[in-house]
Amino acid sequence: MNMMMPAPVPPGCARDDLMTRRQVAVVFRVTSAAVASWARRGRLPEVRDEAGRPRYRRADVETLFRSGTKLKAR
After folding, report:
1. CATH class held by domain 18-67
2. What is the value of pTM for the model shown?
3. pLDDT per residue as tens digits for the range 35-69
Protein backbone atom coordinates (compact mmCIF):
# COMPACT_ATOMS: atom_id res chain seq x y z
CA MET A 1 0.00 0.00 0.00
CA ASN A 2 1.33 3.42 -0.94
CA MET A 3 1.15 5.57 2.20
CA MET A 4 2.10 9.05 1.07
CA MET A 5 2.07 11.79 3.66
CA PRO A 6 -0.37 14.57 2.73
CA ALA A 7 1.21 17.90 1.96
CA PRO A 8 0.61 20.87 4.25
CA VAL A 9 -1.61 23.64 2.95
CA PRO A 10 0.52 25.54 0.46
CA PRO A 11 1.32 29.18 1.19
CA GLY A 12 -1.08 31.54 -0.55
CA CYS A 13 -3.83 28.94 -0.75
CA ALA A 14 -6.99 30.61 0.54
CA ARG A 15 -9.39 28.74 2.80
CA ASP A 16 -12.05 29.18 0.12
CA ASP A 17 -9.88 27.14 -2.25
CA LEU A 18 -10.00 24.11 0.06
CA MET A 19 -12.84 21.63 0.44
CA THR A 20 -13.63 19.21 3.24
CA ARG A 21 -13.95 15.49 2.60
CA ARG A 22 -17.72 15.80 3.00
CA GLN A 23 -17.96 18.65 0.49
CA VAL A 24 -16.08 16.57 -2.08
CA ALA A 25 -18.34 13.60 -1.34
CA VAL A 26 -21.43 15.71 -2.05
CA VAL A 27 -20.03 16.84 -5.42
CA PHE A 28 -19.42 13.24 -6.51
CA ARG A 29 -22.47 11.80 -4.73
CA VAL A 30 -20.37 9.30 -2.79
CA THR A 31 -19.48 8.72 0.85
CA SER A 32 -16.70 10.49 2.72
CA ALA A 33 -14.99 7.11 3.01
CA ALA A 34 -14.84 6.91 -0.81
CA VAL A 35 -13.09 10.29 -0.95
CA ALA A 36 -10.59 9.14 1.69
CA SER A 37 -9.94 6.04 -0.40
CA TRP A 38 -9.26 8.13 -3.51
CA ALA A 39 -6.75 10.19 -1.54
CA ARG A 40 -4.99 7.07 -0.19
CA ARG A 41 -4.72 5.68 -3.73
CA GLY A 42 -3.35 8.95 -5.09
CA ARG A 43 -6.37 9.82 -7.23
CA LEU A 44 -7.04 13.08 -5.39
CA PRO A 45 -4.21 15.05 -3.75
CA GLU A 46 -4.80 15.72 -0.07
CA VAL A 47 -3.43 18.56 2.04
CA ARG A 48 -3.79 19.17 5.77
CA ASP A 49 -5.13 22.34 7.37
CA GLU A 50 -3.59 23.97 10.45
CA ALA A 51 -5.41 21.50 12.70
CA GLY A 52 -4.22 18.48 10.70
CA ARG A 53 -7.58 17.77 9.07
CA PRO A 54 -7.65 16.55 5.46
CA ARG A 55 -8.59 19.10 2.82
CA TYR A 56 -8.75 19.03 -0.97
CA ARG A 57 -7.90 21.85 -3.38
CA ARG A 58 -10.99 22.98 -5.29
CA ALA A 59 -9.00 23.02 -8.55
CA ASP A 60 -7.98 19.36 -8.06
CA VAL A 61 -11.59 18.37 -7.33
CA GLU A 62 -12.85 20.23 -10.40
CA THR A 63 -10.19 18.61 -12.60
CA LEU A 64 -11.12 15.14 -11.36
CA PHE A 65 -14.82 15.86 -11.83
CA ARG A 66 -14.30 17.14 -15.39
CA SER A 67 -12.19 14.13 -16.29
CA GLY A 68 -15.27 11.94 -16.09
CA THR A 69 -13.19 9.16 -14.56
CA LYS A 70 -15.28 6.45 -12.95
CA LEU A 71 -14.03 6.22 -9.38
CA LYS A 72 -14.78 3.45 -6.95
CA ALA A 73 -14.21 3.18 -3.23
CA ARG A 74 -12.37 0.12 -2.03
Report:
1. mainly alpha
2. 0.74
3. 999 999 999 999 999 999 999 999 999 999 999 77
